[in-house]
Every structure is written in structure tokens, then in C-alpha cells.
Amino acid sequence: MTKRQDAKKLHGNCKITDEQVREIYARGHKGESQTALGKEFGVTQGHVGYILKRHTRLKALLGGSEQ
């Protein structure tokens, strides 16, 4: 099962879990490219950028529940 399929089990519209959001945030701020992270997690580079700028999934980054 892919990472995207695992996340869909949690919420029909989610592509990634809160844990994956936190991983993207941490790895992105360590210098990994947004494009590479997007390909690995099955989301666009733009979505990764929003996560890194904290424009989306803020609750996930702060330890809250799925949005």
C-alpha cells in the first residue's frame, strides 16, 4: 500500500497524514527539495511549499488532529 492509500484510510480527501506533514516540514527545512518530497509523498511541489510556509495543515504541525 502506498503512503497516499494509507492516508486515504484516515480521511477521504487527505493525501497525506499529519505524521507525513511533520516529516515533510522537517525534511524540507533541512534542505531537501520540494519537488523530491512531493514525488515521494504523492503531492505537488506547490503543496509541499504550502506546508513549509505553514499555510496549510497547521494543526498537524502543532500536534493537533487532521484538518
Outline the fold blueprint.
Blueprint (H helix, E strand, L loop, with lengths): L2 H8 L7 H12 L4 H8 L3 H8 L5 H4 L6
Helix pairs in contact: 3-4
Protein name: RNA polymerase sigma-70 region 4 domain-containing protein
Organism: Paenibacillus qinlingensis
Count of helical regions = 5
Strand content: under 5%
The average pLDDT is: 80
Choose one word for the global shape: globular
How many strands in all? Answer: 0
The helicity comes to: 55-70%
**Radius of gyration from CA coordinates:** 11 Å
Major β-sheet profile:
none
| Order of secondary-structure elements | HHHHH
Low-confidence stretches: none
Q: Please report the distance between the alpha carbons of the first and last residues.
A: 23 Å
The number of domains: 1
Secondary-structure-based class equals: mainly alpha
Provide an overview of this structure:
This is RNA polymerase sigma-70 region 4 domain-containing protein. With 67 residues, the chain is an all-alpha fold. The chain contains 5 helices and no strands. α3 (34-41) packs across α4 (45-52). The termini are far apart. The model has no long low-confidence stretch (mean pLDDT 80).
Concise synopsis of the structure shown:
The protein contains five helices and no strands. With 67 residues, the protein is an all-alpha fold.
